[in-house]
Write a structure and sequence with these properties.
Largest sheet: 7 strands, parallel
CATH architecture of the largest domain: 3-Layer(aba) Sandwich
Number of helices: 20
CATH class of the largest domain: Alpha Beta
Radius of gyration: 23 Å
Number of domains: 2
Strand content: 5-15%
Number of strands: 15
Strand order of the largest sheet: 3-4-2-6-8-1-9
CATH topology of the largest domain: Rossmann fold
Shape: globular
Distance between the termini: 46 Å
């Protein structure tokens, strides 16, 4: 970020437990940039962005009380986590969790607090009140939630009046540079070049380089190696699973029908949008077959899923070695099938998906109960904002094209507070679309690296040609 004016931190620093965060630069980061008072904290996942933000907001209250209250906007699943962390690390702050049916939307009431925590959905519904308050600082946690400029969440946060605007995210770019442009639409409206300028540019690479160079001074990115050298290592493994006869036949039959359908649509002059939708649907089905063919055909047996058999072996090995495991899947149905297999074997587990009400309670139970060896989670619901250092093994049951989302999930365990080596295992169906998804992930990882090192222009989001290559490649 740009150079900062001297800004003295409060004499009553956060309670013990933030030592590693102090070494990471938490106190020098109290001062916002003197020009735009905006910044994007993109530290690697697990380095304590929440605590850094809380300490910063406590400093604002002590040294600039006239600036007004601070606001944190986060996913609904993280409101309680923010409230708990504030109580633990900055107990002097008067905190309101503005969420739920009984919330009070009066401006006068909201302004009584030092820190107001709310969700993106609640903010959009109550923006009439929030937009009339001048906030000392507005912080968007898991900022990827506002990467779509047309989404209600992005529109709502851009209506806020704040003396400082900040975003916390380990993944500022998930698909394309348009993600970054939307984030800066909140941080510094009008600062980055407009999308039309890229479309009209003779040299789009030059345009993308310019955008990255303009954004770079306002992005702070630190690695675990630099900030927390004491953090135990992370080992990544790929376990390839070979289909048995039934699963292989189902996959080959569906893949052939997919190729035929796409070819006929193209020959028939179908629009790109229609072909894209059909291709995505077929892609989903192939991925489900790889995960567990019973998702499409419940009459099949447990033994027809090569991946489940490999997973159950991993669970037994993990238990015998006193390891504890987080298991992520993009398919809730696959998690339900895994649940049944664990229950049949008498293996205790915790479970979290989008329908789970008390997510923090589930996490607390897992972390505090060593006798529970497995926690099952959907990637979307459990991949961000949770601390699960009670586990030292992370299993990705099925791959997702965005490697940043998988990295965030792994870092639920590999983060400050972890004392054991963390092993991340990807289960991949051999010779299938999952191997091609792994190839696509390399492109996405390169895009994120290019943004955060300002070395080159980034790739575009997944295209129709990418999808067809995934589906049709031999």
């Amino acid at each position: 970020m740009p150079s900062r004016k001297s800004f003295k931190p409060p004499s009553h620093r956060p309670k013990p437990g933030a030592n590693a965060l102090r070494r990471s630069g938490i106190y020098p980061n109290y001062s916002p940039p003197p020009c735009a008072k905006s910044g994007l904290l993109a530290d690697e996942m697990g380095l304590g962005k929440t605590v850094q933000a809380l300490a910063f907001m406590e400093a604002l209250r002590v040294h600039r009380p006239a600036d007004g209250p601070c606001l944190v906007v986060c996913p609904a699943s993280l409101v309680e986590n923010w409230r708990r962390e504030a109580r633990r690390f900055t107990p002097s702050l008067k905190v309101l969790a503005h969420h739920g049916q009984s919330r009070i939307t009066s401006q006068d009431y909201l302004k009584k607090f030092d820190l107001v925590i709310t969700s993106y959905g609640t903010l959009a519904r109550d923006i009439g009140s929030f937009a009339l308050i001048t906030w000392g600082a507005a912080v968007c946690d898991e900022g990827q939630n506002i990467k779509n400029a047309r989404a209600q969440a992005a529109k709502a946060v851009k209506q806020l009046i704040a003396k400082g605007r900040y975003i916390l995210t380990g993944t500022p770019v998930e698909n394309s540079l348009e993600d970054l442009r939307s984030l800066f639409g909140f941080l510094m409206p009008g600062y980055l070049p407009k999308p039309e300028e890229r479309l009209l540019a003779d040299d789009r690479k030059w345009h993308d380089d310019r955008l990255l160079q303009m954004a770079a001074p306002y992005i702070l990115r630190r690695s675990k190696v630099a900030v927390a050298p004491e953090l135990p290592p992370k080992i990544e493994q790929i376990v390839y699973c070979d289909f048995e006869e039934n699963q292989s036949a189902i996959y080959e039959q569906f893949q052939e029908s997919t190729r035929k359908e796409i070819f006929e649509m193209e020959m028939g002059g179908a629009s790109e949008a229609r072909i894209r939708m059909a291709a995505f649907n077929q892609l989903l089905r192939l991925r489900q077959i790889c995960a567990d063919p019973r998702i499409l055909d419940p009459k099949l047996e447990e033994t027809d899923s090569a991946k489940l058999q490999a997973f159950l072996e991993l669970v037994e090995e993990s238990k015998d070695a006193n390891h504890r495991m987080l298991v992520f899947s993009t398919f809730v149905t696959a998690l339900q099938l895994i649940k049944k297999s664990l229950e049949d074997r008498g293996i205790p587990y915790c479970y979290l998906d989008g329908s789970t009400k008390d997510r923090q309670g589930v996490c607390d139970k897992f972390n505090s109960t060593p006798s529970i060896p497995v926690m099952l989670m959907s990637l979307k619901a459990g991949g961000t904002g949770l601390n699960l250092t009670g586990a030292d093994t992370v299993v990705h049951f099925d791959p997702w094209w965005n490697p940043a989302a998988e990295a965030q999930a792994t870092d639920r365990a590999h983060r400050i507070g972890q004392t054991r080596t963390v092993t991340s295992i990807k289960l991949i169906a051999s010779g299938t679309i999952e191997e091609r998804v792994m190839e696509l992930q390399k492109t996405k990882s390169e895009m994120l690296r290019k943004l955060l090192t300002e070395s080159d222009s980034a790739s575009s989001a997944i295209s129709l040609d990418d999808i067809k290559a995934l589906l049709l490649k031999d």
